[in-house]
Structures are given as structure tokens and as C-alpha cells.
Amino acid sequence: MPYSIAIDGPAGAGKSTIAKALAKSLGYYYVDTGALYRGLAFGLLQKGVPFQNEKAVEEEIKGIHVELLYENGVQKVLCNGVDCSALIRTSEIGEGASVISQYASVREKLLDLQRNVARQHSCVMDGRDIGSVVLPDANKKFFLTASPEVRARRRTLEFQQKGESANYESVLEEVKKRDERDMSRAVAPLKQVEDAILIDSSGLNIEEVVDKMLAYCVGSE
Ligand code: C5P
């Protein structure tokens, strides 16, 4: 039976970096589910569909096919057959993904895709509703968080390292807005489930968080 580890938490908590490192040390697949929402947002943007128009989104996603591909353990996202992995890392797409992820039709479309990977491979899967909805029977569940200020500082640095202009105050505002939307939506809101282990990464570096998680996982496989 494949072993599954769910990591949920707000934007900028370090989920993807940590999930990737954890997956590497365990030899598991790393599944970044946010990339699927971003892939759909990318397809909608290409078609010129406004993210806020739920009816139009529901209709148009029927013609958008997103899939995950793994090459040497690295995840790629395809949108209608085209690799869009690098193109989905913009704040416009992140914002769009956050808006459309509120819609039941969008979440439903991506559910089996995520479950199928976990059915076939031992994995570390990160997202917002992995422990609560996608993999309620995951072997281990973590809720990874950090203060909004720490998360905004990390995000600002990330954008700047990619050569994009970013201003801390506006990133902080965006982080708070996204938290509010992710936590208050009616369908699959972001929340810490009862059986998830809470880890606050505010004062910890990547290695320290990964070591903490590994300590919980080793011996329970
Ligand atoms: O994690 P990432 O920033 O790439 O995710 C983009 C957006 O997709 C998030 O803000 C969130 O609203 C949504 N998302 C979600 N459920 C997931 C993963 C991402 O709602 N499992």
C-alpha cells in the first residue's frame, strides 16, 4: 500500500519547499496540488474567461484538460497537453487560482486527479484540503503555518529572487486576503483537521521543519 503524507496550510508557510524536501528524503513523489488550480487558472486566462464569473468558469473548464506528469521525480503540469509549469508561477495566476478554487465545479474536477496519484505512489501531497477532503485517510497529516508577516517576507524575497518587483506591504496585504478567502470559502475551506500535527515554521529553517516531520514519520511506515 502506498504511504501518504498530507501537508496543508496557508500560502507562504513553506509547504512546497518542505514537502519537496521531505519527499526527497523519503523517496516519495511530491505532489503540489496548488499547481493544478494554477493550471486551470492558466487555461482560463488564455481563453479570456474572468475568474470572478463562476458560471463562465464552470462552463469553460469542461474544455480544459489539466494533468500531472512526473519526470525523474519532478512534477510537471500540463494544460491541454502543453507544459505550463513555469508559466503558472505568477501572482496573477496565484490570485486567479485562489478565486476559482472557491467553486465546487473546480474542486470536483481536480479531486480524482489528486487521489489517483496517491493511490499509485507513496507521496507527500501539499495543499489546503488534503487532510480534510482529498486524503482523509492519509498516514500522516501536518498543518504547516507561520505568521502572516513571516510569510509575506518570504514571498517578497521569492519574487525578488525571480527578478519580479515586489513590495512587502502589498504582498502582506495579498497574503492576508488570500488567507481570508481560503479559510472562509464554503467548499473545502482551509482548516487544521483534528488528527493533523501543527507545525509553526515562523522561527524555524527548512531543515528544522523537515527534521521535525521526519521524526513523526520514521517508524510509522
Ligand atoms: O499553493 P498555491 O499558492 O500554489 O495555490 C494556489 C491557490 O490554489 C491557493 O491560494 C488556494 O486558494 C488554491 N488551492 C486550493 N486547494 C489546494 C491547493 C491550492 O484551494 N489543495
From TrEMBL:
<feature type="binding site">
    <location>
        <begin position="9"/>
        <end position="17"/>
    </location>
    <ligand>
        <name>ATP</name>
    </ligand>
</feature>
<keyword id="KW-0547">Nucleotide-binding</keyword>
<dbReference type="GO" id="GO:0005524">
    <property type="term" value="F:ATP binding"/>
</dbReference>
<feature type="domain" description="Cytidylate kinase">
    <location>
        <begin position="5"/>
        <end position="216"/>
    </location>
</feature>
<keyword id="KW-0418">Kinase</keyword>
<dbReference type="GO" id="GO:0006220">
    <property type="term" value="P:pyrimidine nucleotide metabolic process"/>
</dbReference>
<dbReference type="GO" id="GO:0015949">
    <property type="term" value="P:nucleobase-containing small molecule interconversion"/>
</dbReference>
<keyword id="KW-0808">Transferase</keyword>
<keyword id="KW-0067">ATP-binding</keyword>
<keyword id="KW-0963">Cytoplasm</keyword>
<dbReference type="GO" id="GO:0005829">
    <property type="term" value="C:cytosol"/>
</dbReference>
<dbReference type="InterPro" id="IPR003136">
    <property type="entry name" value="Cytidylate_kin"/>
</dbReference>
<dbReference type="GO" id="GO:0036430">
    <property type="term" value="F:CMP kinase activity"/>
</dbReference>
<dbReference type="InterPro" id="IPR011994">
    <property type="entry name" value="Cytidylate_kinase_dom"/>
</dbReference>
<dbReference type="InterPro" id="IPR027417">
    <property type="entry name" value="P-loop_NTPase"/>
</dbReference>
<dbReference type="GO" id="GO:0036431">
    <property type="term" value="F:dCMP kinase activity"/>
</dbReference>
<protein>
    <recommendedName>
        <fullName>Cytidylate kinase</fullName>
        <ecNumber>2.7.4.25</ecNumber>
    </recommendedName>
</protein>
<dbReference type="Pfam" id="PF02224">
    <property type="entry name" value="Cytidylate_kin"/>
</dbReference>
<comment type="similarity">
    <text>Belongs to the cytidylate kinase family. Type 1 subfamily.</text>
</comment>
